[in-house]
Amino acid sequence: MTGRLPFEGLTVLDVSTFIAAPAAAVVLGDYGADVIKVEQPGDGDPHRANINLTNFPNAAVNYPWHMDARNKRSIALDLKSDGGRAALDRLIARCDVLITNFPFPVRARLRLNYDDVRRVNPRAIYASFSGYGETGPDKDQIGFDSNAFFARSGLLDSARYEGQPPAFSLPGSGDRPSAMGFLSAILIGLITRERTGEGTWVASSLVANGLWANGVYAQAALVGGFLSPRPPREQPRSAVANIYETRDGRWMQVSIVREDKMWGTLCRAIGRPELEADTRFAETPVRRANAVTLTAILDEVFKAQDWTHWHHVFAEVNIPHGPIARAEDIPGDAQAIAACAIVETANPEMPRTLAAPFQVGGVTPRKAGPGPGLGEHTDEILRQAGFSAEEIAKLRGSGAAA
Q: What's the rounded Cα separation, in Å, for the pair 220 and 226?
């Protein structure tokens, strides 16, 4: 590699809010793009205040904002004003990608539809993100990952236990994988422009990404295949694909898929070789028919030793397993650190952060800096777009910029 980041020289306008779309812009910035965060004067992106939501863990650092706005520059423009909207057009004329997830009626009012952007810059990639897609009866419905990614896709119902209500999703946990789907669309748009010389529009949505994530159950449903809700843990469909508690109160996941091949290995590893020849468990069909009995046996076995014991034993013989990690385990996860999933930052307030979930050979992404202050780079960005000092002063005086 030359030392240049792959997106160096690209200018991205992040005209979006909350998590999924801004998170896609984050990765473009990680790999070299100049990402300009366009925000409304006053409060800016509502994601700045999400740290105060009751379902976000408390912390002295505004970690959601730093994570989803790292390495971006902020400009505050009132897009409802003529001056602010005209200033945005000057930025659009110079950009390579415009990202937006504003509701479609808002885009129409702000002249932020694809045709509006294309008239100003026909080479731009217009990247549209929504809750429910570009067309259809629900396209204007407000979509968060809780209701669009998890609920509408069937994920929450597919994962619930029999006789229990669906769980509620965790904050942002559908937004972030959706951001990677959206990023893929943007990259395809850039490749298309490289080949044709023309810009285009690309789109993704929370519901489409949720259905993709729920692919086994969703595709089965499309051909008439359905599965009843999960039975309780003590009555699993398979005792060797289940969760178990260890002596020290930790839970671990055992995930043996090739049962007949691994059954004897498991029996010997847990110190119960006699189970291998037990007629109740000798082959997969009878083992599953007797899953309740086998689960009770394995419960006693696993509660006799700590998690570290079972991890060592299973790792030695390649039995698929893993801890049910608690949030407090994540900072010390040596494997996540070694695999560059957790990386150091250039932000003293937040010395470590999560990296984009992939690596590129010979390329070291930018270290994550802090999320910008609202309008921190307004004058700088406007000057680079060709605005004179007098024009900038006029925009600020009218309230169109801040």
A: 7
